[in-house]
Amino acid sequence: MKCISLFIVIFFLVSCSTMPAINPPMLSSAGQKHFTCPSPFLKEKSQLVHAIEITAAGNVQGAIIGITVADPSNRFISCAIMTTEGMVLLEAQSGAEKLNVLRALPPFDSGDFAQNLIDDIRLIYFNPQGLLQRKGNLSDGSTACRWQEESGDFVDVIANKPGSTEIKKYSACGSLNRHVKLKQTEGNPYSSIELEGSEMVNYRLIMTLIDAHPVKTIKGKNNEKQR
Amino acid sequence: MLTDQTLRRYFYILVCFILILSLPFVALADSFEQLRKDSANIQTIQSRFVQKKFMKILTKPLISEGRFYYVAPDSFRWEYLKPLRSAVINYKGDTRRFIVSGGKMIEDKAGGMQAMRVVLGEVTGWMSGKFDQNPSFVATLKEGTNTRITLTPVGKSMSGMIEKIEITVSKKAAAVKSVKIIENANAFTLIDFTDVEINKAINSTVFQDVQ
């Protein structure tokens, strides 16, 4: 019995990784007092349309168009995936809790695909929720902040050079599950997005911005309230 | 990425786009029989198109642009140029799809070509103007200021994907004016064709590769 327990402990120690250390903020020569966490996230309700190239298990799987309407004020998301020909493969909405799949064609109707998609979108566009655990600098000098979510997962937001931000999501034991790279090329922090996901099959999305603009919310006509 | 069933349905829609331009003289036709006779005169078609996708989620339509080539009886190239490049080519019984990857056009080998071939078997009939002979659709033709052909899918092949397709043909210009593919009450696709050229020579290399 002791052997089994020892094996389990060793298994978890081996499978868990160590997240990069975030050191206390480096003070500037002027004696910097305020430290600002990187925040490329949406400030207002917006619609974003991206061309998305999908790679899974190292093979190019296809190119699709992704539409997202995201409202940071209530963390509400509407999204759709369509082919270049205009056929909608998936359409879903999600407020703080409830997921509503409006349309899903196989294989997008399987398992937790829509929920995982919504989670990825939230990671990209919304401020992390939870407790701000650490803020400071990585060993390479990048500015970084780390949040721990209610689920126990960790989210790092890292600014390493102007116009370039990374978001990393770790499991509670420190395994890197998502790695998002944002590259601002034309004034919008979401001009170019690269998302790497570690699941049973690893995948990579390369997203190129087609269109982005703010969406005005008419009082009382909020998407979430309509449903 | 997609299952065979989805691909088959998906190619139905793609093919619906393609078949439309085989009807440039439909304005002269007042019956499907006349339409078949008119279509027999068409050897080649080339055109540009603008596609507008309307959805509830979109505050303004998503606009795509592309071009189309057709040589009778069954060679075609349906290509999107903006905002996301892709192309489907059928030539000598071989169907290939191209997608953009790393800034280059590559052949999509993710599967589904078998499904596409099944669909293309039915296209041959459509290309011959046999709209009223395809068991997958009920076709109606209505004369007015413009001629309108409505294709309504029957059976389950497209259930949940397409409600109907409306093809509007300008009598004045004797050419297809627009195609409206209605998915449901909240989503439809509108395609406008421009610079349509009939029976103008098309180099066969158009159907052989995508740069």
Report on the structure:
The complex is a heterodimer of chains A (227) and B (211). Chain A is built from three helices and twelve strands, in the order αβββββαβββββββα. Chain A has a twelve-stranded antiparallel beta sheet, covered by helices on one side. Chain A is 14% helix and 43% strand. Chain A has helices at residues 2-15, 113-125, 223-226, and strands spanning 46-56, 59-71, 76-82, 88-94, 99-104, 131-137, 143-148, 154-161, 164-170, 176-183, 192-197, 203-214. Chain A is globular. Chain A has one domain (38-217): outer membrane lipoprotein receptor (LolB), chain A (Clam). Chain A starts with a helix and ends with a helix. Mean pLDDT of chain A is 84; it is low at 222-227. In chain A, strand 7 (143-148) and strand 8 form a beta hairpin. With 227 residues, chain A is mainly β. The longest helix of chain A is centred in the first third of the chain and has 14 residues, at 2-15. An eleven-stranded antiparallel beta sheet of chain B has the order 6-5-4-3-2-1-11-10-9-8-7, with helices on one face. In chain B, a hairpin with a 2-residue loop joins strand 10 (175-184) and strand 11 (187-198). Chain B has three helices and eleven strands, in the order H-H-E-E-E-E-E-E-H-E-E-E-E-E. Chain B is of the alpha+beta class and 211 residues long. Chain B is globular and about 45 Å long. Chain B has one domain (4-196): Clam (outer membrane lipoprotein receptor (LolB), chain A), CATH 2.50.20. The longest helix of chain B has 17 residues, at 4-20. Chain B has helices at residues 4-20, 32-39, 113-127, and strands spanning 44-55, 62-71, 75-82, 86-91, 94-101, 104-107, 137-142, 146-153, 164-170, 175-184, 187-198. At the A-B interface, strand 1, strand 2, strand 3, strand 4 and strand 12 of A face helix 1, strand 1 and strand 5 of B.
